[in-house]
Amino acid sequence: MPQFVTPFASLDLLRQPEQRHDPLQAFDAADEYLLEHLHQQGLAAGSRVLLLNDGFGALACALAPHATVVSSGDSFLGALALHKNLARNGLAADAVRFVPANACAEGPFDVVLIRVPKTLALLEEQLIRLHGQLAPGARVIAAGMVKHLPRAAGELLERYVGPVQASLAVKKARLLSAPPEDKPAPQSPYPTRYQLDSPPLQLVNHANVFCREGLDIGTRAFLPHLPVGLGEARVADLGCGNGVLAIVSALDNPHAQYLLLDESFMAIQSAEANWRAALGERPVELRAADGLAGQPADSLDVVLCNPPFHQQQVVGDFLAWRMFKQAHAALRHGGELWIVGNRHLGYHAKLKRLFREVEQVAATPKFVILKARKG
């Protein structure tokens, strides 16, 4: 694994979740560019630094010995990577304070370094929350790989922070510097809401929730085919998003017990609000987590899952396959994993490597709904 060499530190870093022979690094040229630029500008002793969306803790681990560092992001896996990488590089667990993206990091901050996220709504919400949190003369610098840095990111910085100056590209990375201006307190457009017709539900969606503006087409295909007659089954919604699968299932299965998991803190915040609106005080367990990692074996009867096919900008079925293995370990003998997936992903064949029986429950021209039973 290559070292992350910066003017502040040389680091040995891991991504999360770990996979053997991982060809991907826990840092990229945009991280290198940010730290080189900050070093050239100078970082005063005792500076308070806010990091937004520092993927796997590369920036935080580099800066922790030199400043008071607060890191904020919406990924449980990112937070887990930060803590592991601090320990891996001999840094104290409390050397960096992590604030989930569904909470507000309290300043004042002298420097704000931003990795531009895939979801620009998350960036917008983060910039809105910066209002009133910047020290006099604060520096705000965003970074990204050029192919993942849309013009709209600069427009958001201009709207909420100040005039943007774009750097030259270095190793296909670019910086956007935005000296803060006095601006009126902005009004956040988040969370957003949309209406589900059947069953009639209004769903709350915080800024980083997948398909925030409306029900995604995979879930729409899945909802009419969710299992019924579950009695007192223990059911997990794995990668729950705004919680719609679990909520619709719970309405049809009044005695079942539900566990909702997602690696996005904002997804769990949304799911909790939606569960309470639809089901009141009915007991439920919600947690931001690395899927079902740590879930006791043989502790679940049913797992519902609309698996993701990307992590940040990286597309692939690694996360889905990992979720299938986690579900298999957590399900009791005879327990069932229900999933929806794009036809072309070939989940049927993958599930057959783990489960005794795999059945196609339904299909549309684009999606298949599969039920896999643990033998």
UniProtKB/TrEMBL annotation:
Keyword S-adenosyl-L-methionine recorded: yes
Location within or outside the cell: Cytoplasm
UniProt keyword annotations, A-Z: Cytoplasm, Methyltransferase, rRNA processing, S-adenosyl-L-methionine, Transferase
Any one GO CC term of the record: cytoplasm
Domain Methyltransferase small: 201-371
Primary location group: cytoplasm
Domain of life of the source: Bacteria
CDD domains, alphabetized: AdoMet_MTases (cd02440)
GO function terms (MF aspect): 23S rRNA (guanine(1835)-N(2))-methyltransferase activity; nucleic acid binding
Domain RlmG N-terminal: 1-180
EC number: 2.1.1.174
Catalysed transformations (reactions): guanosine(1835) in 23S rRNA + S-adenosyl-L-methionine = N(2)-methylguanosine(1835) in 23S rRNA + S-adenosyl-L-homocysteine + H(+)
HAMAP family named in the record: 23SrRNA_methyltr_G
The family this protein is said to belong to: Belongs to the methyltransferase superfamily. RlmG family.
PANTHER family: RIBOSOMAL RNA LARGE SUBUNIT METHYLTRANSFERASE G, RIBOSOMAL RNA SMALL SUBUNIT METHYLTRANSFERASE C
Function: Specifically methylates the guanine in position 1835 (m2G1835) of 23S rRNA.
Protein name: Ribosomal RNA large subunit methyltransferase G
Native organism: Pseudomonas linyingensis
